[in-house]
Amino acid sequence: MAAAPKRVPLPAILLANDLLDGDVVFAVAGANGQLIWTRDPALALVASDDPAAESLEAFAAAELAGNRVVDAYLVDVTMETGQPVPRHFRERFKTLGPSNRPDLGKQAGDGISAGQRA
Amino acid sequence: MYRYDEFDERFVRERVAQFRDQVSRRLDGSITEDEFKPLRLKNGVYLQLHAYMLRIAIPYGTLSSKQLRQLALIGERYDRGYGHFTTRQNLQFNWPKLRDVPEILDLLADVEMHCIQTSGNCIRNVTADHFAGVAQDEIEDPRPTAELIRQWSSLHPEFDYLPRKFKIAVTGAEHDRAVIKAHDIGLRLRRHPDTHEISYEVSVGGGLGRTPMIGKVVRDYLPKDDLLAFLEAIMRVYNLEGRRDNKYKARVKILVHEIGVEEFRRRVEEEFARLDGPSVNADPAEVARIAAYFKAPDYEVLPATSRVLEATKAANLGFARWVEVNTIPHKAPGYAALTISLKPVGEAPGDATSDQMRLVADLAEQYSQAEIRVTHAQNLVLPYVRQRDLFAIWQRLGEAGLASANIGLITDIISCPGLDYCALATARSIPIAQAIQHRFADDNRQKTIGELNIKISGCINACGHHHVGHIGILGLEKRGIESYQITLGGDATENAAIGEILGPGLAAEDVPDAIERIVNVYLSERTEGESFIENVRRIGLAPFKAAFQEVAHAVA
Questions:
Q1: What is the predicted pLDDT for the residue at B556?
Q2: Are B546 and B421 members of one domain?
Q3: B120 is a domain residue
Q4: Which of A15, A95, B157, B274 could be cross-linked to A41 through a Cys-Cys bond (beta carbons 3.0 to 4.6 Å apart)?
Q5: Are residues B170 and B75 part of one domain?
Q6: Which of B51, B348, B420 is the closest to A22 by Cβ?
Q7: Which 3 state secondary structure label does DSSP give B25?
Q8: Are residues B166 and B260 in the same domain?
């Protein structure tokens, strides 16, 4: 049996691209505690322990299978002023948008003010 | 320009309908992402960092005003008001929604365009010299050849699942502006010294990426009539013997390298001899039909040099400079081929807004037979401009921020989208290009330095052609930060060469300093009239390495 893929160090958040429009989305706890998607990286649920990370992984698998998102994976983060920031620069750009175009992407509020829930 | 016949039209429309059905089946869950991915890629749809990306084929970089206006409309209606012209003469939109892609494909089909074979392991969009049909050094227009190959390779059933992607470029000129030596197949139209017949020099196994190679000649003079059979022979040898076990060794360049060009040539010639040539080669009537679409326009009879142009140049130095840098002599007296720079200092190389696209479409319609070319260096060309109209064009381009006089100069940088957009990238490219542009923004300084090609890729796949840049920059990740490796001495022309690495990778903020040191070596070492690349070839890498090391050590 193949070894389970190594999980990123914690704390971590779950991100993906929305299947329909490609937007980057983040897992967040909904009103009833169940996981849902948000387009606002500041709201992403931060998993700090194994059970929380497993819950995000299970949600990712279900949502991939349910054809609601693509390319879902956990991203290790640090907390900066109370918000999760990816440790790796690649994912930092993914939560912001093109660095040469501050008028585009999440850094410009794309899709966030219009409706925070995916 | 080539116009679709009924078959082309039906074929593209059917393909849109097919993809619309595939998208709806993906959205209703009938097919999985694993099943859908190869289907969307075959229609030019990638998933990038922030969104989907749609790559639109612009065969051999030739566009009509109508087509460019439609691209502007799509950019405005379905994207963020801009598009990115690529090093394969295509256009990419960075923000389309998957649900909108079938609508976009319909709009493209309305103007005889599509996204077929802009991705996947097939024969990709064929590229060509952007000055096709107008350059003075041209022996024959390469576009009829490129169009013939496009038709032959479109959904060719035998070559739809190749070991890896396959890129073909064609030039008909002495000076190679199509980078043919860095393509899987490079074709050069040339005259046979004895018979004077126009034929093809066929090179195979060029390519950039993680294993850069310069193409090797497998046939010096291929009769034009035999083109498709010979290409088919090459494709068969590759399709059968190219590696499928390792995607990093699957390109034809690796096969040519592993078995040697002599053996590769022998196998191709053997296959070529076995093929029933007449059944594969194009019907001469069809070749003539295609060629007729590329007939030169009815040029006005004009003096070789326009007096109006000379007078406006004398009265306006900025305009004179732009004419000197951005136009080339034309086959037809009194005309010029004009390159519109998409490299204004501080903008993303190759990006154009919808408004800018519309302006260029209007200018082409008014002044250039409604035709535009996309260059592999990510600029646009108006190929048929009367010299006397240049001033009016310059004024209107200036109002839209498109009158940079920098073609071929240090700020005319090729850059892939890099990590600002691309999911494969390991580092950013665009901000590096912008920083270098700012450092060398002064027009006089650029003029003093002269021709210098900087090419930047944000990963080893080398979409930014860094290996063949006079100065190449490759963005990598090193210990969790972006790191830039600099190469020197690459050349994308008929003197094709792969650049050599100067030293350890640099942090982004140190790159402009390093470039400046390299340029300063050239300025102090050059002889009268010697260009940057000629200087590098003459004095070798050592002086440049020494200057580079000063920056590398200072930051180490």
A1: 60
A2: yes
A3: no
A4: A95
A5: no
A6: B51
A7: helix
A8: yes
pLDDT of A113: 62
- Find the residue in B nearest to A22 (Cα): B51
Residues B351 and B483 in one domain: no
CATH number at residue B318: 3.90.480.20
CB contact under 8 A, B98 and A21: yes
Looking at beta carbons, which residues of chain B come within 8 Å of A104? 80, 95
Amino acid found at B541: L
What percent of chain A stands above pLDDT 90? 84
Q: Give the domain extent around A36.
A: 12-108
Alpha carbon of B62: minimum distance to chain A alpha carbons (Å):
29
Residue of chain B minimizing CA distance to A93: B420
| Nearest by CB: A100 against B80, B434, B481 | B434
Domain that holds residue B362: 307-399
In terms of CA atoms, which chain B residue is nearest residue A68?
B27
Contact A100 B29 (CB under 8 A): no
Mean pLDDT of B71-85: 98
Distance between CA atoms of B171 and B185, rounded to whole angstroms?
12
- Res A74 pLDDT > 70: yes
The distance of A58 to chain B (nearest Cα, Å) reads 18
B51 and A21 within 8 Å at the Cβ level: the answer is yes
In tens, the pLDDT along B154-192 reads 989 999 999 999 999 999 999 999 999 999 999 999 999
Inter-residue contact B180 to B186 (CB < 8 Å)? yes
Cβ distance B480 to A22 less than 8 Å, yes or no, reads no
Q: What is the pLDDT of residues B386-428, one digit of tens each?
A: 999 999 999 999 999 999 999 999 999 999 999 999 999 999 9
pTM beyond 0.90: the answer is yes
Which uninterrupted H or E stretch holds B239? Answer: helix B227-241
Q: Say whether B227 sits in a helix, a strand or coil.
A: helix
Q: Is residue B115 part of a domain?
A: no
Q: Which chain B residues have a beta carbon less than 8 Å from that of A20? A: 27, 97-99
- Does residue A115 surpass a pLDDT of 50? no
On average, the pLDDT of chain B sits at: 97
Contacts of A97 in chain B (CB under 8 A): 50
| pLDDT at position A2 | 55
pLDDT number for residue A111: 81
DSSP string, B30-80: SS-HHHHHHHHHHTTEEE-SSSEEEEE--GGGEEEHHHHHHHHHHHHHHSS
Task: Say if residue B418 is in the same domain as residue B543.
Answer: yes
| Whole-number Å distance between alpha carbons of B408 and B283 | 40
Q: In this predicted structure, what is the pLDDT of residue B293?
A: 96
Instruction: Name the nearest CA neighbour of B412 among B354, B493, B325.
Output: B325
Q: Would you say B407 and B341 are in contact if contact means Cβ atoms under 8 Å apart?
A: yes
Are B219 and B192 in the same domain? yes
What confidence tens digit (pLDDT) does each residue in B339-361 have? 999 999 999 999 999 999 999 99
CB-closest option in B29, B51, B94 to A23: B51
- Whether B481 sits inside 8 A of A98 (CB atoms) is no
Does B244 lie in the same domain as B146? yes
User: How many independent structural domains does chain B possess?
Assistant: 4
Q: How many CB pairs under 8 A join A and B?
A: 73
Both B166 and B230 in a single domain? yes
Q: What is the mean pLDDT of residues B264-286?
A: 96
